[in-house]
Amino acid sequence: MRTFRKCAIFSASAAAIVIAQQAAAQDNGAAENGYNEIIVTAQKREQSLQDVSVAVSAVSADALANAGISNLQDMQQLVPSVTFGNDFNQAKVFIRGVGANTSTTGSSTGVALHVDGAYVARAEAQLTSLFDVERVEVLRGPQGSLYGRNAVGGSINIITAKPTVDTSGYVRLGYGNYNAITAEAAISGPIADWLRVRIAGKNELRDGYGRDPFNGWDVDDLNRKMVRGQAQILFSETADLLLAAEYFRQNDNSGAVHYYGPAFPGVARLATLGPAGIATKPRDLGSDEPPSVDTRSQSYTATLNWELSDAFSVTNIANYRRFKTQLIQDLDISAVVNQLPNPTTVQTRTIDAKQWSNEFQVKYDSDIVNGVVGLYYFGEHQRPRDQVGLSSTEGMASNIAFLATRPTTIDGVAVAPGSISLAYADYLCDFPTGVAPNRVCLRSRLNTEAWAAFGQLNFDLEKAAGLTGLTLKLGGRFSHEKVSTANMSVVMTANANPAAGAVLAFTDAPYTQGGTYRQKTFKDFTPEIGLSWQPDRNILLYYTYSEGFKAGSGENAAGSSTIVRPEKMKNHEVGAKLEMLDRKLTFNVAGYWYKLKDLQINKTVGGGPTGYTTIFENAARTEAKGVEIEWMLRPVHRVRLSGGVSYTDSKYKDFVTVDPLDPRNVAQPGQPAYDPVTNPDSTAFGAPCLPGSLNANGPCSIQLAGNYTRNSPRWSYNVHAEVDLVDDEQAGTVTLAGDMSGKSTVYFTEFNRLEEGAKAYTLFDAALRWTSAKDDLTASLWIKNIRDTLRASSTFAISTGRIIGATWLPPRTYGVTLGYRY
């Protein structure tokens, strides 16, 4: 921790933002100082990064390639204010303590992701790789005016490389340990005077970081393929249409949740299932089936740009995205094969989601006023299906026999034999006719329809009123969202002695008959007002008040009709952007303070017909304050330094909830209830709830005021250094680069336990890179996570297996990358 603080202090005092890799660069004649002006579109129009009164980082394609960044999770090495993780094949992106607080599919994220202006809704779809990009922009804080939908914590904007005027392209090949093979290529250029095209693709293959010691298959391997085609039609010098199509395919054993520890140590009745089948090495994993991911994604975007005059222009972005994925995960994280009547634990989650959106923008630019106004529409149909049983392909035949011949209970009410339609169960489980369904079969329908009107205008008060260097920013967004949820399910549990008892069954009426179907409409207006002062071109000071909004949503959970309340944020931010030492030093700092109401949070507690109960709720109040510093320095021609440090103090002010790791809240079928006489030390971690506490006659609820929010390390930082060891007109350039990045303790749940968190860590990377004199050939030797630090990127308390599972940051990797561009 002492080392960490020293590094953070060094990073802050060395001064400056805009990570050296942020050269999304247009050279405005200042290259003699090694300075490239960074152009961003964070406010939906081209601006210099140093002229934007928004906390934003930009990372270029070259920086991503040099740092070996191939996905969003790796981005946290370059942008310390962002925390990335994943579990159950879902991206967990957090900015300033706000992000994806759910592990069931269907609900929305707190940080928006856009690809060329088109919103990507599903957290699972955000795990696709980065390839052939121009830059990645990370906007921090609520983006209520221009981005609106689910951008409470911020927005990550991926800007892909576009078709070029001249023929150009590149090829990049890499090989590393774990037999990692990466191939990426692109070609771009004109077909005719009115038509330009670009085609790019990438392939990633890798052996597993671990293996199943009982069955021998790889764990956390990689097999991804992706391709993107673009065609730009030039109608005139002032109008063009860009058509883009993208396809992504993944089929591997990645994203597995590993064994992190028992959920209830010392509580005999809640011991882990199948302890003999748990792998002893943290990166290994025992399971009944390979923990597989099978994903297909396709996206189609049409972007029309038309300059109507010197002052007015219009843009229209239309997008359709289809996303299908299947995840198989053994929820006891054990190779001991499930046997009835014990709980069966092989989960199969299938998602079929369709989304479509259209955004129409009108941009205006004059001497006094500039800005953008627009209309936005978004629709999504999700059809997730969750099953838990003996396997992904084998059901529970004995249960089907019971359902047909024995008395059954539905929601606690006895019904006659045969009252549950087996055809209905087969429909939910999607098994072939005659094959018994799993013990849990859930089929959800989650729909969203949203539209918004938005705008942001900047008034030059110097030209309008003679106030030197002052600009007033006014913005706002009116949002209207209609969401619906329905969760049809069948749950079956066999008795230990089939001859002596019935089958417990829970079912829900079909979607068309009501049942769990619920629909709600949410409306909100999120204003934004800011004032900036730029006394000269090297100094920008600003203050912004902004609000954020995320509509309520449902989730896929057996029998659930819950639609939680919307999240609402009020945020204050002050910042400074400075260029000093003849523009050799860039220093940006932002401070913020916000209040967040009704943070949406998901967790599971053991018990109920399925063996687990999903809780989707709102945390009443959250507050946060923090400071972010980023800097770039070029002291001499051959040396480039950069870095950043982020301080985040994000805590709950009011959150009464149930602790999943308090055994008194867990009543597994067939097990005795909690008995304080025979087991006085009731809890697995911490002090037991006392008589007279909240909900003393029911589940033991606790007040979490003062606890840190999920995925919100108090400190995070990065330092990057590059030195040109050789810079010769004939031999080319040889560059030695190094990175150091780290975070303080991270808690992955609101209960702030290290058993569900990760201790402070620091990662070190290095690379030796050669670039030819013509800048067309490159060769790089690289190593990442030099010390092979083992840290979790997320954890999850899995009620079914009574264990805590974790996903890991990558281990030490090294290799060589060769590139050619023309």
UniProtKB/TrEMBL annotation:
GO terms for cellular component: cell outer membrane. It is found in: Cell outer membrane. Residues 49-154 form the TonB-dependent receptor plug domain. GO terms for biological process: iron ion transport. Its main location: membrane. Residues 1-25 form the signal peptide. It is a multi-pass membrane protein. Belongs to the TonB-dependent receptor family. This is Iron complex outermembrane receptor protein. It comes from Sphingobium jiangsuense.
